[in-house]
Amino acid sequence: MARERYSRDYRITEKFDEKGRVHVDYEYIGEDYRFAGGEKQLRRERRTALVLCAAGWAAYIAALLPRTEAMHRLYIALPFIFLAVPLAMYADFCLAFVRMPEVLEHRHADRLNNRYPFIAFLLTVFSLIPAAAESILLFTGSIQGGFGDIFFLLCAILLFCIGAYMFRNREKIAAVPCGKKTAAEDVK
Q1: Which of 102, 137, 157, 160 is the most exposed place for a label (fewest CB within 10 A)?
Q2: Residue 52, Cβ neighbours under 10 Å: how many?
Q3: Is the pLDDT of residue 187 over 50?
Q4: Residue 93 and residue 27: Cα distance in Å, rounded?
C-alpha cells in the first residue's frame, strides 16, 4: 500500500545490457520538497535534534539508576517504561534526519512531516504522566521524597520539556513543496 501511494512519483525505464539482461531503473519525477527554514536553520535543527536525543536517553537511563519509591507504583512505572518507545523512534528519526539531503522526495517529506509531531506527542504524554504523578505524591507526602525520587522527578520533567520543545518547534522541521521537476531537470 505504501509503495502504491508514491508510484506516480517514479518513472520506470528498462534497459538491456550487452548480454541481453534487463535492468530496471526508477527515476524520481515527483514534486521536490525542501525544509521550511533555510540551510542555516536546517544545520541548527539537525544539531538540536541530536542533542535532544542524547539528552533524552541520558535522562531516561539516569532516572532508572537510583532506587525510588515511585517506580514501585504501576501508574508511574508503566508510562515511564513505555517512554523508551518514543525515544527509540526519535533516535531512528534523528539518524534519518541527519542523513537527509536538502532536497527531498515526496515519501521522505511525508515521513518527516508525519512522524516528528507524532514522536513529540508521545514523548510529551509518556513523560507528563510520571512527572505529574510523582510530583503529586511528593507534594501530598505519600512517599518519603528521598534523593532518588526527586532525581526521578527532575529527569521526568526534563523529558517532558524535551517533548514539549519538540512539539512546539515541529513547524521548523517540516518539509514544504518547492515545485515539480522541470523538463530541463529531468534531462540531467
Answers
A1: 102
A2: 19
A3: no
A4: 25
